[in-house]
């Protein structure tokens, strides 16, 4: 299936799929936009490949299709109760709350409780950067990381991202999991029956493996060894401990609800906008001039998104077939 689609066609179809899972139209449209934009910017493991599993979770009420999100404001911070919302709905909502708060404060830390899987965190920090703010975001996950010889997963792979406006150019967006490779890459390899590279994962006995299915039954390996473990611990402190409640402490650490944090900073409140912009220009110019191959994080994503919006998007054959089957089940045929 080598069909090429206009992104807005897939966005509209995705929104209809989510509406078929009882998501209100406005929220379905926003979530669809986030999923498609993730796909367009190259986050293949967090784009359209996630739709079928999200639909299943909505239908099973593991995600709340009609959340009533609430928040309370404190000095320099916000506590957002996402009420089980999809991450693609809760994340943009948190960004809007943060940007609004920056009208009267220099910095705001938002902790997000009862939040579904946020997908590609870089899409959320991109939204904040497009709104003029520096931002950092992290989400804790169920235990997934282990070092060789561990008896099982010890800590989440806890993705973290930041976004920063860059004058005259697309924002810088950096997005990583604390594992060597995101679990989504392992899921995709297992789905396609392909092996994974050495150094990505361990089996259930703590031994290195290239078998994607054995890796899913075992653990991911942290990037840069103990350094990746340390960053995962930082995310646990910010996204887990700060968002903790009596209810979450007593709940099993499943993977449906994953608390998160989002920190936003208004650049002009510190150095002033002119000085900030000039500094950003200088260091990024030094960086990219150091090599013909040097590029800033986010530049490739911006380029391929622009290309796809001009000339259409394609999907891997296996994912296109999966989406077609999903559309058939829900009575919303995938456009061809």
Strand content: 15-25%
Radius of gyration: 20 Å
Helix and strand succession?
HHHEEHEHEEEHEEHEHHEHHH
Total number of domains:
2
The CATH homologous superfamily of the largest domain is called Malate/L-lactate/L-sulpholactate dehydrogenase, NADPH binding domain
Tell me which CATH architecture of the largest domain applies here: 2-Layer Sandwich
Shape: globular
Instruction: Give a quick account of the main beta sheet: strands, pairing sense, barrel closure.
Output: 7 strands, mixed
- Which parts are unreliable, with pLDDT below 50 for 5 consecutive residues or more? none
- Give the class-level CATH name of the largest domain: Alpha Beta
Protein topology:
Blueprint: H1 7-19, H2 25-40, H3 51-59, E1 70-74, E2 77-85, H4 87-101, E3 107-115, H5 121-130, E4 134-139, E5 160-166, E6 169-176, H6 183-192, E7 201-202, E8 208-209, H7 212-217, E9 219-220, H8 226-241, H9 246-250, E10 260-265, H10 273-288, H11 299-311, H12 317-330
Parallel strand pairs: 2-3
Antiparallel strand pairs: 1-2, 3-10, 4-5, 4-10, 5-6, 7-8, 7-9
Helix pairs in contact: 1-2, 2-4, 4-5
Summary of the model, kept short:
Belongs to the LDH2/MDH2 oxidoreductase family. The protein folds into two domains: 264 residues, Malate/L-lactate/L-sulpholactate dehydrogenase, NADPH binding domain (Ribosomal Protein S8, Chain: A, domain 1, 2-Layer Sandwich); 42 residues, Hypothetical oxidoreductase yiak, domain 3 (Wheat Germ Agglutinin (Isolectin 2), domain 1).
Structural commentary:
- The protein has about 325 residues and is of the alpha+beta class.
- It has two domains: about 5-180 and about 220-280 and about 295-330, 2-Layer Sandwich (Ribosomal Protein S8, Chain: A, domain 1), CATH 3.30.1370.60; about 180-220, Hypothetical oxidoreductase yiak, domain 3 (Wheat Germ Agglutinin (Isolectin 2), domain 1).
- It has twelve helices and ten strands.
- It has helices spanning about 5-20, 25-40, 50-60, 85-100, 120-130, 185-190, 210-215, 225-240, 245-250, 275-290, 300-310, 315-330, and strands at about 70-75, 75-85, 105-115, 135-140, 160-165, 170-175, 200, 210, 220, 260-265.
- The strands form two sheets. A seven-stranded mixed beta sheet has the order 1-2-3-10-4-5-6, with helices on both faces.
- A hairpin with a 5-residue loop joins strand 7 (about 200) and strand 8.
- Helix 1 (about 5-20) packs across helix 2 (about 25-40) and helix 4 runs parallel beside helix 5 (about 120-130).
- The radius of gyration is 20 Å and the shape is globular.
- The model has no long low-confidence stretch (mean pLDDT about 95).
């Amino acid at each position: 299936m080598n069909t090429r689609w206009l992104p807005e066609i897939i966005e509209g179809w995705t929104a209809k799929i989510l509406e078929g899972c009882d998501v209100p139209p406005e929220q379905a449209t926003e979530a669809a936009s986030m999923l498609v934009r993730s796909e367009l910017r190259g986050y293949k493991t967090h784009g359209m490949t996630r739709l079928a599993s999200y639909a299943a979770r909505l239908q099973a009420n593991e995600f709340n299709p009609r959340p009533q999100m609430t928040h309370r404001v404190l000095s320099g911070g916000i506590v957002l109760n996402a009420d089980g919302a999809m991450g693609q709905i809760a994340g943009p909502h948190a960004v809007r709350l943060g940007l609004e708060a920056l009208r009267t404060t220099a910095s705001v830390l938002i902790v997000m409780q009862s939040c579904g899987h946020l997908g590609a965190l870089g899409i959320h920090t991109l939204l904040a950067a497009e709104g003029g703010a520096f931002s950092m975001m992290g989400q804790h996950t169920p235990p997934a990381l282990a070092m060789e010889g561990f008896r099982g997963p010890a800590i989440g792979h806890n993705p973290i991202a930041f976004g920063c406006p860059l004058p005259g150019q697309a924002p810088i967006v950096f997005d990583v999991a604390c594992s060597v490779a995101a679990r989504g890459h392992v899921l995709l390899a297992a789905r396609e029956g392909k092996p994974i590279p050495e150094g990505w994962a361990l089996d259930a006995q703590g031994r290195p493996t290239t078998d994607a299915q054995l890796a899913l039954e075992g653990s991911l390996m942290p990037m840069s060894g103990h350094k990746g473990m340390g960053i995962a611990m930082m995310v646990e402190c910010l996204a887990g401990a700060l968002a903790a409640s009596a209810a979450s402490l007593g709940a099993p650490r499943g993977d449906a609800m994953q608390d998160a944090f989002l920190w936003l900073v208004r650049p002009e409140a510190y150095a002033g906008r002119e000085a900030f912009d000039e500094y950003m220009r200088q260091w990024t110019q030094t960086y990219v001039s150091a090599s013909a191959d040097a590029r800033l994080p986010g530049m490739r994503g911006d380029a391929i998104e622009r290309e796809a919006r001009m000339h259409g998007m394609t999907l891997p054959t296996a994912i296109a077939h999966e989406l077609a089957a999903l559309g058939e089940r829900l009575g919303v045929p995938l456009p061809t």
